[in-house]
Amino acid sequence: MSKKSSRVEFACQALRQAIIEQALPPGTKLPEDELGARFGMSRTLVRAALALLQSEGLVDAHPRRTATTARPTLDEAKDVFGVRRTLEREVVRLVIALWRPEFGAELEGHVREEEAARSAHDAPVSIRLAGEFHTKLADMAGNALLRRYLGEVVSRCSLILALYGRPHSADCAVNEHREIITALRAGDLKAAVAVMDRHLGSVEQRALLDKGRDADFDLGGVLTRYAEAVEARTRPNLARLPKRNTALRPTDLGTSHPGPTAATPQQSARPSRRLK
Predict the structure, then answer these.
(1) What is the model's pLDDT at position 206?
(2) What range defines the domain where residue 155 resides?
(3) How many domains does the chain have?
(4) Which of 11, 73, 180, 206 is the most exposed place for a label (fewest CB within 10 A)?
């Protein structure tokens, strides 16, 4: 992977995680100059990253307009959940057909991570882990295209929850995920599909409440936190990020919408070469 493509992927990872964890709420403006400054990228590379996120349904980007995090309509949100139910049923069918004891151990380990986030009252991490439970299942299904499509749909559902839903319920997620593991381990396809449908129904019910949110937040601070977190995971494969002052001008702020403040651990930013 070239330095340019790795830098684009780096920015996509940071922005995707910030959107999934609801630190960048729906409708947030994503100015190219601000993203370039935070990620040490040229505008050309910023546009490439935004185009990738747009293809995943997480960003709305139009010519001559500042890109924003996506704001799906209620009808679009219902369509997303409808597609997700269909994909998840196929995942359940394939996982049962391919079931191995180590699948159960891996899923149980993931649920323990969810329990730790719940105990720490870390809502952003709980939200991300809840979605990752389903993408882990898709990994076990052994179909790369199905994994890709489900991953995109799960990310869109996180965006929908940020826009319309009430706060994430870590208790519900953990308990329902344990029920899914039990059904999969038993190898009962009918029961496993029923448990998954009920789980997704409760997620959809929490999501589609037809209400928005409003609050000011620090766009630059969010970008910096998530960039540093991704940099820490990928170091030393990437050039180091530039050290920037996180204080923003009023024009740097995106459209005011709330969302939980991400609790991602901060790392020290280091200088990097700006890629052209």
Answers:
(1) 73
(2) 74-207
(3) 2
(4) 73
Contact residues for 37 (Cβ-Cβ < 8 A; gap 6+) = 242, 244
Q: Are residues 193 and 246 in the same domain?
A: no
Residues comprising the chain, all counted: 276
Alpha-carbon distance of 122 to 168, in angstroms, equals 11
- Residues of the chain falling short of pLDDT 50: 210-215, 243-276
The crossing angle, in degrees rounded to 10, of helices 101-119 and 170-186 is 170
According to the model, what pLDDT value does residue 248 have? 35
State the pLDDT at residue 1: 55
Contact 22, 124 (CB under 8 A): yes
Going from the C-alpha of 234 to that of each of 6, 23, 239, 261, the distances in angstroms are 10, 21, 10, 23
Q: Show the tokens assigned to 97.
A: 């057909």
CB 262 within 8 A of CB 23: yes
Kindly state whether residues 142 and 186 are assigned to the same domain.
Answer: yes
Which domain CATH number covers 41? 1.10.10.10
193/227 same-domain check: no
Would you state the pLDDT for residue 253? Answer: 35
**Environment class of residue 132 by beta-carbon count within 10 Å: exposed (0-12), middle (13-18) or buried (19+)?**
middle
* Amino acid at position 44, single letter: T
Cα gap 1→76, rounded to integer Å = 35
Q: Could you tell me the two tokens for 100?
A: 């191995």
Q: Supply angle C-alpha 144, 159, 123, rounded to 5.
A: 100
Q: State pLDDT tens for residues 242-268.
A: 544 443 333 443 433 444 444 444 444
